[in-house]
Structures are given as C-alpha cells and as structure tokens.
Amino acid sequence: METKLDKIDIAVIRALQKDARASFAAIAKSCSVSVDTISKRFKKIEAAGVARGTTILLNPKSFACDCVASFGIRTDFSHIDKVLQFLKKMPDIVFSTQTMGRHSIFAVAIVKNVTVLSQVKEVIKGHPMVREVTTSIWINDILLCPENFDLPTGEEKPIG
Amino acid sequence: MDKIDLYIIETLSRNARTSFRQIAIALDVSPDTIIDRYNALQEKGIIRGSTIVLNPKEIGYSAMAVFMIDISPAEDNKSRFDSSVIVEKLIKMRNIIVASKTVGDHDLLAIGVVKDFQHLFEVRDEIAAIPGVKDMEVSFWSEITELCPKYFVI
Q1: d(CA B129, CA B96)
Q2: Which residues of B touch A157 (CB under 8 A)?
C-alpha cells in the first residue's frame, strides 16, 4: 500500500526529518502556503499512517550503554515465532525480526558493555530452539541517515 | 542528568513537537528553564536531533535488508582499503539508513530500505561495486519496521 503525497506533503516530511521541531511557519513560508495548510498536512500525514509521530535522536552512550551489537540467529524453522517472542521479552534487545537469508532472525541489542553482551548471547544460545548465533559488535560512528530514501512521487534523484 | 532532563527526554521521545511551555507547566518551572535544559542536552550530545518516524510501507518500501560486508584483506600496505572510506560511501548511498564498522563475523554492516526484489539486487550491486568490498551477506525482512525509531539511533 502506498499513500500519494504531493509537493507540500513532501516538503513537510523532509523538513521534519531534519528537525522534528521545525516551525510550521517556516515550512509554510518555503512552500508559499499558509501555516494552517502545513498544520493540516501534518495531521493528514499522521492520520494516513505515513508517519507515526515524531521523536528525538538520543545517544545511548549518554545512558551508560556503550555496546551496540547485532545477532544473526538460526533456529529450527518451525520455532521461529517462539524464539522471536522470547527475544522480544528480553529488555536488552531493542529490535528483532524474522529474516530471509542465512539467518532466521536478525536482532539488535544495546547494552552497557561487552560482558553484558556476552551474557545476552549466552541467554539466546541457551534457548532450546536456537541452533546458531553469530554476533557483530558495531563500532563507533554508527551513522543514521534518515533522509536517505525517496518519497513516492519520485521527485528526488533516482537510485544509482 | 536530573529529573527535569529525564522528563524532557521522555516527553520528546514520544512527541518531539511537544511545546516547551507544556513541559514547563507539567514540571512547574519556567519555559526558559526547559529551553536552557534542552539546549544543554543538545550541546552535551545527549540529544542529537529530532525526526519524524515514517512507516516505510506507506511510502513504497516493502522490505528492509541488512548487508553484512567483508573488506578485501591487504596484499601489501599500498592496496589496503580504508574501512572508514567505505562506511562514508555507504551512508551516502540512497536507501541506506544505518551503516557501521563491526567486530565479529563481518567488517561492516549496513541496513537499508528496498522497494522490491529487483531493487534489493540493485542496492546489493551498488554496494558490491564499492572498491574494497570483497564479499557480502544479505538478509532481508518485510515485517513493518519504522524508519529511524529510537533503536536505530546510535
């Protein structure tokens, strides 16, 4: 499913991607429309499910979380759901999904240090339906580029 | 960080557009206090910015993929590839939303959004064409994952 967006919608999204606190007045000015239009468009974008709201980007290191790692997990095929449910209950796992490819599940953990990471891995490995776990520790400068994809009208530069 | 800082962080995580006045009223302090605290949190790098949380399915992306990349080993010092340069190239690629050096199974990791199978292959080929990329493993998923929610922000 895809929601059709026009120029103004895209201007709103692009502005808020860079700074969710951007003033609607400034966006309105750049599009030469009224502030009211921008505020209506923002509500429309949320109502259509294109956006689930706004959030701030935090640095986990400020919260004594120094170690970010991802796990590739292989499980018995019939038990992927059970293992996923198990992972979703673990507080250190911030993201987990079923995948196609070499692993059955891809999960990301944010923890205090490597010792804790090792404990998390042991817990995952200890699950009776888990066959194999590979760990990758993410090293510094993990860069997030939220503006780095196209929006449906395809006004942006094409891929490649 | 004290109670006020934590309250600001919690409130803005749920809705980054919450007015500072509203937060000030909830905490019974002046709006200026909140503005000062917010600026301090940004200066200290605790808050790195704010963004809109998009649902990729609604804007034409049906899947996400993780690319686990191996870099060619050095044959001699001259031909060594700098992994930082490759990470830089990865983040400049369209459709890549996270990239990092890793220790473990592979050398680099990138997560991207893709429209369909063909697009997945295109993105893979584009990564494979970066000088120094030796090998790559791809896993993908189609479960709804919001773009740049808290957990991707590092």
Answers
A1: 15
A2: 94
This model of the complex carries an ipTM of 0.74
Per-residue exposure over A82-97, b if at least 16 CB sit within 10 Å of its own CB, e if not:
ebbebbeeeebbbbbb
Kindly give the residue spans of alpha helices, DSSP state H, lying in chain A: 7-18, 24-31, 35-47, 80-89, 114-126
Residue B31 shares a structural domain with residue B76: no
Which one, of B87, B5, B97, lies nearest residue B51 by Cα?
B97
Gap between the Cα atoms of A142 and B103, Å rounded: 13
Q: Is A135 in contact with B145 (Cβ distance < 8 A)?
A: no
Which DSSP category does B145 fall into?
Answer: -
Which of B16, B57, B140 is closest, CB to CB, to A55? B16
Q: Say yes or no for a CB contact (<8 Å) between A146 and B51.
A: yes
> What pTM value is reported for the model?
0.77
Q: What's the rounded mean pLDDT across residues A5-16?
A: 90
The fold of the A7-47 domain, in CATH, is: Arc Repressor Mutant, subunit A (1.10.10)
Nearest to B150 by CA among A54, A79, A150: A54
Nearest to B154 among A60, A98, A99 (CB): A60
CA distance A13 to B129: 31
What is the helix (H) or strand (E) element at residue B32, kind and residue range?
Answer: helix B31-43
pLDDT in tens, B30-66: 999 999 999 999 999 888 888 888 887 788 888 889 9
Q: Are residues B64 and B139 in the same domain?
A: yes
